[in-house]
C-alpha cells in the first residue's frame, strides 16, 4: 500500500468520527496501518476536523519515527503503536471519548452483553482495564496506556473482543479497515447506551445466555458466518 492510499483511508475514517457524532471538540483519532511495511497513518495532533486534509495525515513507523508529514502526530500515537505491535489482525485503531462508553470507563465497569445488538459485534463483555499506576502515568503515559490495554486483552481474542475501555478515560476499538474500526466504535457507543438504559430500568438485568451470544456473534463473524451478502 502506498503512503498516499494509507493517508486517504485514514483521512476518510477520521471524517466519519464527527459524522457519526462520536467526537466532541478534538477528543479522538483514527489510525490505519500497513503491517507488512511496519507503518501507520494517524491524525495530526489538535487539528479541527473541519480543517483536516488527507495530506495532513502523518505516517509513523512501528518504532515511533515520523516517516512522512509536516505536523505533529496525535499525542495518542504511542498507544496506537503499542496496539499495532500486539494485535496483528488490527489494521485500524479508533479512539473516541463517546459519552456512554466513557460513562462505563469512568465508572470502572465493563459493558455487559445484555442483548443481541451487543452480541452481533462483541463475543461477551467489553472489558475495562485496571486503573493506571502513578508510575505509569508519570513515565511514558500514552505507551503505558497501550500496555494496560494489552494486559487486559491477554486472555481474550482481539478479533472476538475488538474494543476495550481504559479505566477513567474511554474506549479504543479496532478492526481490519478504517471503516470497519469506525463501525465498531459506533456499535460500542450504541450498546453502551443500551446497557446503561437497561441497567437503569432493571439493575438486576443479566447477560444473555452463552448460546444466544455465540449464535449472534458467529453468524456474522468467522468461517461459518452466514449473515448478509457475504
Ligand atoms: Zn483520550
Give a quick rundown of the structure.
With 230 residues, the protein is an alpha+beta fold. The protein is built from 8 helices and 7 strands; from the N terminus they run αββββαβααααββαα.
List descriptors.
single chain; 230 residues; alpha+beta; 7-stranded antiparallel beta sheet; 8 helices; 7 strands; globular; binds zinc ion
Major sheet: size, sense and barrel closure?
7 strands, antiparallel
Q: How many distinct helices?
A: 8
Secondary structure class reads alpha+beta
Strand order of the largest sheet: 4-3-2-1-5-7-6
**SSE pattern:** HEEEEHEHHHHEEHH
Q: Would you count the extended β strands for me?
A: 7
- Measure the end-to-end span: 25 Å
What characteristic shape results from the CA principal axes? Answer: globular
Task: Estimate the mean pLDDT confidence.
Answer: 95
Percent strand equals 5-15%
Secondary-structure blueprint of this entry?
Blueprint lengths: L2 H17 L8 E7 L4 E4 L15 E4 L4 E3 L8 H10 L5 E5 L2 H9 L8 H4 L14 H5 L2 H12 L10 E4 L3 E6 L2 H24 L8 H11 L10
Helix pairs in contact: 2-6, 3-7
The structure holds zinc ion.
Zinc ion (ZN) binds next to loops.
Question: Could you characterize what this model shows?
Answer:
The protein is α+β, with helices and mostly antiparallel strands. 40% of the residues lie in helices and 14% in strands. It contains eight helices and seven strands; from the N terminus they run H-E-E-E-E-H-E-H-H-H-H-E-E-H-H. The protein has helices at 3-19, 77-86, 99-107, 116-119, 134-138, 141-152, 178-201, 210-220, and strands at 28-34, 39-42, 58-61, 66-68, 92-96, 163-166, 170-175. Strands 4-3-2-1-5-7-6 form a seven-stranded antiparallel sheet, with helices on both faces. Strand 1 (28-34) and strand 2 form a beta hairpin. Helix 3 (99-107) packs across helix 7. The radius of gyration is 17 Å and the shape is globular. Bound molecules: zinc ion. Residues 27, 95, 97, 169-170 line the site of zinc ion.
Amino acid at each position: 500500500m502506498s503512503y498516499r492510499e494509507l493517508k486517504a483511508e485514514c483521512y476518510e475514517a477520521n471524517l466519519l468520527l464527527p459524522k457519526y457524532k462520536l467526537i466532541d471538540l478534538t477528543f479522538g483519532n483514527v489510525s490505519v496501518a500497513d503491517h507488512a511495511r511496519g507503518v501507520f497513518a494517524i491524525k495530526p495532533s489538535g487539528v479541527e476536523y473541519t480543517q483536516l486534509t488527507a495530506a495532513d495525515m502523518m505516517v509513523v513507523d512501528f518504532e515511533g519515527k515520523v516517516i512522512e508529514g509536516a505536523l505533529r502526530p496525535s499525542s495518542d500515537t504511542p498507544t496506537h503503536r503499542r496496539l499495532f505491535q500486539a494485535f496483528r489482525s488490527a489494521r485500524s485503531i479508533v479512539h473516541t471519548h463517546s459519552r456512554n462508553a466513557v460513562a462505563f470507563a469512568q465508572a470502572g465497569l465493563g459493558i455487559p452483553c445484555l442483548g443481541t445488538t451487543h452480541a452481533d459485534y462483541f463475543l461477551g463483555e467489553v472489558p475495562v482495564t485496571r486503573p493506571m499506576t502513578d508510575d505509569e502515568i508519570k513515565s511514558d503515559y500514552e505507551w503505558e496506556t497501550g500496555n494496560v490495554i494489552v494486559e487486559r486483552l491477554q486472555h481474550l481474542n482481539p478479533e472476538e473482543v475488538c474494543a476495550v475501555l481504559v479505566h477513567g478515560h474511554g474506549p479504543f476499538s479496532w478492526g481490519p479497515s478504517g471503516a470497519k474500526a469506525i463501525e465498531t466504535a459506533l456499535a460500542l457507543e450504541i450498546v453502551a447506551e443500551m446497557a446503561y438504559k437497561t441497567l437503569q430500568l432493571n439493575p438486576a438485568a443479566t447477560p444473555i445466555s452463552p448460546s444466544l451470544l455465540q449464535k449472534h456473534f458467529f453468524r456474522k463473524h468467522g468461517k461459518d458466518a452466514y449473515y448478509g451478502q457475504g
